[in-house]
Amino acid sequence: MSLFDAANGMRLPARRRVPLRGYRRVLVEGAEIGTVVIERATVADLPQVNETHRRCSAASRRARYHRPRESLMPTEWSTLCGSGTGGTWLARPAANAGRVLGMVSVLPCSNPSSWDFSILIDDAWQGRRLGTVMARHAVASTRAAGVESVEALVERDNVRSLKLLRRLGAAIRTCDASTVEAHIRLRRDPVVPGSP
């Protein structure tokens, strides 16, 4: 079932340039869940995020963290929520703000022009395009903030994540026998007059 942007009455995924702060996107997904909202995470969301981690399979958590961790520590979550740059968005039913369906993060890493990208979707919501919508939202927000690229380290056998990243335009390169790096370029080089 496809998702819709209720505010604009159009099918998603639609790219929108938005600031990294204070953005809320309303989505609609069938009668069984009602309205789904994507909004910035705060440190107060940690208990709901950890509950989502517990609901996810070990395989899903391994795909996100490269190990099957069951929860995040407050200091880790504070970093993921961002402190001025980067951050995490959560998807949750509008009628049940205590339930997190997925999370996507983009954060500065050692290279300030390229940020780290990661995503975790509740097992029950995988394969329903929620991850694609969330990923496109995070990428568009990061692009609007002037970041040049995002990167993700992915286990080679993580077919779903690699498919999602390729849909976002990622170039994939092998790191080692079990890991690949996905690189999504967000800013295009300017066209220089007279260049081929």
UniProtKB/TrEMBL annotation:
Keywords: Transferase
Residue stretches making up the N-acetyltransferase domain: 36-191
Pfam families: Acetyltransf_1
GO molecular function annotation: acyltransferase activity, transferring groups other than amino-acyl groups
SUPFAM superfamilies: Acyl-CoA N-acyltransferases (Nat)
Descriptive protein name: Acetyltransferase (GNAT) family protein
Native source species: Actinacidiphila yanglinensis
